[in-house]
Amino acid sequence: MGFLRDVFSERSLSYLMKIHEKLRHYERQSPTPVLHSAAGLVEDVIEELQTAPVNNEEKELLQLLSTPHLRAMLVVHDTVAQKNFDPALPPLPDNFDDDFDEESVKIVRLVKNKEPL
């Protein structure tokens, strides 16, 4: 019982619990994106601006929307909006043999004067 009392009376555990509660609160109230494909919309706008005669403001907008930093930000926005966080792994080849022989592995640690190298 003394161990549990010590664990639960630690300030760090209290702080961790507060952080956990804040994250859970944010998770319940997280805003939903208005648009899941902002990069596609920007591509459409750029295409429209390039095909029509443009004034100075439209030229400036076209230049801003064409910058690599803004495009990268929009791609990241779309990734987060679609909650597509897992890396895309290539498919296994058709001739993949999962009955491969296991190889033994030796782990070696070198020590000099009682200190790891």
UniProtKB/TrEMBL annotation:
Q: What Gene3D superfamilies has UniProt attached to this entry?
A: L27 domain
Domain (L27) ranges: 1-30, 31-88
Q: Which InterPro entries match?
A: L27_C, L27_dom, L27_dom_sf, MAGUK
Top-level taxon of origin: Eukaryota
Name the chain's protein.
Answer: MPP3 protein
Q: Give the organism the record lists.
A: Oxylabes madagascariensis (white-throated Oxylabes)
